[in-house]
Automatic annotation (TrEMBL):
Residues 410-457 are annotated as: Disordered. The keyword Phosphoprotein does not apply. It comes from the Bacteria. GO terms for biological process: N-acetylglucosamine catabolic process. Residues 410-419 have a biased composition (Basic and acidic residues). Belongs to the metallo-dependent hydrolases superfamily. NagA family. Residues 285-374 form the Amidohydrolase-related domain. One of its GO terms (molecular function) is N-acetylglucosamine-6-phosphate deacetylase activity. This is Amidohydrolase. CDD domains: Met_dep_hydrolase_C. PANTHER family: N-ACETYLGLUCOSAMINE-6-PHOSPHATE DEACETYLASE. Pfam families: Amidohydro_1. Keywords: Hydrolase.
Length: 457
């Protein structure tokens, strides 16, 4: 039970002040004022604090072992990010420290049709299978533009088809038509020639797209290619989410008519040629046209501060605070078809929530605790205490190792000084004192040994 907090439900109840959040068996049991806690409940004083749903990152590449791209073919729909999850990636913990609880880990954008993606919950300490959000639908990565036609890969990558935007559109069309024929053969129980049907994992994944069983997430930038894929989506009755979609504001009406989502950046632009028309008002303008919009990270570090990325939409476009927070909570949940489980604090939903020291959109907001499925996975007070323990252990190890290192340095100096008269050697305690003093603060209060080559000699 969290008591007396300001609760951003991101649901019909809106923002509740001096309210309580009751969690039972990993689910939100109740949200309101003056709730009665069951006997033996753990109670947290939320006075002066804010509680929000856990942040959902709709475009992430964390926790992947061995790279996110299978770039050898134009179509690699048979490969699966879920097979190469790395539960030991420290970024999982760091993003929990920023309030992120759910992420869609995508295949890269090296192919017009890439691999199958994996929606995960950031259950730090679980194994790879334990990270998987198993109630979430299956997804797959498509991509358009510079990356897939290899225009930014260098002169050694000019032979893989397609090399133009028109080729990208045609390979998408051809692949989906092939999947359609494969599905017909599956239903018939035999190949078109009447012979036995060989299982094709590549076409099987695309057949799932055509059946509505697998969601398409499509990397895109320019309005022309966005409109081109909208025509394909209409032909095959696909409702995708456009990723990046930095010119989405130009064609927001067409995206809205399709019912597609748009997962974009807050204010990225000018990092490559095809994004030259990007503007920071993109998210707000698409929102006003009725598009379900989310802000994502596509970046390990940015996934730790998506709350302040969302806040930029208040400045650039005038979204309300709750509309802005929706960009990283309920909206990405809707895009991923997991809004019945996460994205808002409503009875029956998963107890994924963050306790902040300030309003979540504030640049001063720091998560104090992050909970997933009713279990605490990050606690700032515990983290700070553990840092102190680690620092004490590091200091003890350095103290134990330093005398031997100093002796080794002195012996090395003797060997290099053979030609001349032996210089007087300082006492061991003087060496210890001198080298101990040469350990400046380097990063996050981490002391490192620092000395010049001459001093080392």
């Amino acid at each position: 039970m969290v008591r007396h907090a300001t609760i951003w439900t991101q649901g019909p109840l809106g923002v509740l002040e001096d309210a309580d959040l009751l969690v039972e068996k990993g689910k939100v049991a109740a949200v309101g004022r003056n709730l009665k806690a069951p006997s033996g409940a753990v109670e947290i004083d939320g006075s002066g604090k804010h509680v929000s749903p856990g942040i959902i990152d709709a475009h992430s590449h964390i926790a992947v072992s061995g790279g996110v791209n299978e770039a050898t073919h134009a179509v690699t729909s048979e490969v699966r990010i879920g097979d190469v999850l790395d539960p030991t990636d420290i970024i999982i913990y760091r993003q929990l420290a920023g309030g992120t609880t759910t992420a869609m880990v995508l295949h890269g954008s090296a192919n017009p049709i890439g691999g199958q993606s994996q929606i995960v919950k950031l259950r730090w300490g679980a194994d790879a299978d334990g990270l998987k959000f198993k109630r979430a639908p299956e997804t797959i990565k498509f991509a358009l533009g510079e990356n897939v036609k290899q225009s930014n890969w260098g002169d050694n990558f000019t032979t893989r088809y397609p090399q133009t935007r028109m080729g990208v559109e045609q390979i998408d069309l051809d692949s989906l038509l092939a999947a359609q024929a494969y599905g017909a053969a599956l239903n018939a129980g035999h190949a078109a020639d009447g012979g036995p049907l060989r299982r094709d994992l590549r076409l099987e994944a695309l057949w799932e797209v055509l059946q509505g069983k697998r969601l398409v997430q499509i990397h895109s930038y320019r309005q022309d290619e966005i409109l081109g894929f909208i025509r394909i989506a209409q032909q095959f009755h696909i409702v995708p989410t456009f990723q990046h979609v930095l010119e989405g504001y130009k064609v927001a009406d067409a995206i809205a008519r399709l019912g597609a989502g748009a997962s974009t950046f807050s204010d990225w632009w000018a990092y490559k040629f095809e994004v030259r028309d990007a503007i920071p008002y993109n998210g707000a303008l698409m929102t006003r046209q009725g598009v379900t919009v989310s802000f994502n990270s596509d970046d390990d570090e940015m996934g730790r501060r998506l709350n302040t990325e969302a806040a930029k939409s208040v400045k650039y476009g005038g979204l309300s605070d709750t509309e802005a927070l929706a960009l990283v909570t309920i909206n990405p949940a809707r895009q991923l078809h997991i809004d019945k489980y996460v994205g808002s604090l409503e009875p029956g939903k998963d107890a994924d929530f963050v306790i902040w020291n300030a309003p979540p959109l504030s640049t001063l907001a720091v998560p104090q605790q992050t909970w997933v499925d009713g279990r605490k996975y990050f606690d700032r007070a515990d983290d700070l205490a553990e840092r102190a323990n680690v620092e004490r252990e590091r200091a003890a190890l350095i103290a134990a190792a330093l005398p031997e290192r100093v002796k080794a340095l002195a012996q090395d100096g003797d060997k290099k000084d053979k030609a001349g008269a032996a210089a007087p050697q300082p006492r061991e305690e003087d060496l210890l004192r001198r080298y101990a003093a040469r350990r400046p603060i380097y990063h996050d209060d981490e002391p490192v040994n620092g000395c010049t080559d001459a001093e080392s000699h």
